[in-house]
Amino acid sequence: MEQIEYVKPGEIETRSFAMIGEELKRQDIVLPKDQEMVTKRVIHTTADFDYVKTLVYSPRAVETAKNLILQGADIVTDTNMALAGINKKVLARYGGEVHCFMADPEVARLASKRQVTRATVSMEFAAKIKKPLIFAVGNAPTALVKLYELIKSAEFRPAFIIGVPVGFVNVEAAKELILETDVPYIVNRGRKGGSNVAAAICNAILYELGR
């Protein structure tokens, strides 16, 4: 049985990232420099090294996302869990804020009336915000489908999409739709993802700016 090691609270994250680096080295995996801290933070959040293979980045994705945040972009997410997890204090330094419309009573009313998901209506609400928007989708594939429809109809263009919903129904297909667009993205192919992954990607980018 593995022995419990005492680690000071302030050292736990540093030690965790060191262990991730050691494991990657053992597997002879060298991450692209610009993607390294994002991928490592997702692994840190999930303890899942499969993300090394499944995370897909558009060209200069991390640099693009950083520049958007520096210019005051807002982040829109599809769950209150991701809303809680994203570091709003760091984002606010650059003039941005995080939005989630899933609990909005009007979103619920319209979704029920139209027989669509609240995530679908939430994306429509978000599209009315007059700022560059980074979408961090960790739960609802219908959010990605709606964004794809808005892009294709030229009604709205997100500045950036983080597409990492988790699940089974339409999850993989929805992610592939985003890969077909010319919008900058970070997408996790396959079934894995989640609100914690969406928040981790946002925070990795924010923390890189804070260095």
Would you kindly provide a written description of the structure presented here, covering whatever features stand out?
- The protein has 211 residues and is α/β, with parallel strands linked by helices.
- The protein has a single domain (52-209), classed as Rossmann fold (3-Layer(aba) Sandwich), CATH 3.40.50.
- Helix content is 51%, strand content 10%.
- It is built from eleven helices and six strands.
- The chain has helices at 12-26, 36-46, 51-54, 61-70, 80-85, 88-93, 105-114, 118-126, 141-152, 171-179, 195-209, and strands at 55-57, 74-77, 98-99, 133-137, 160-163, 185-188.
- A six-stranded mixed beta sheet has the order 1-6-5-4-2-3, with helices on both faces.
- Strand 4, helix 9 and strand 5 (160-163) form a beta-alpha-beta unit.
- Helix 1 packs across helix 2 (36-46) and helix 7 packs across helix 8 (118-126).
- The longest helix is centred in the N-terminal third of the chain and has 15 residues, at 12-26.
- The mean pLDDT is 95.
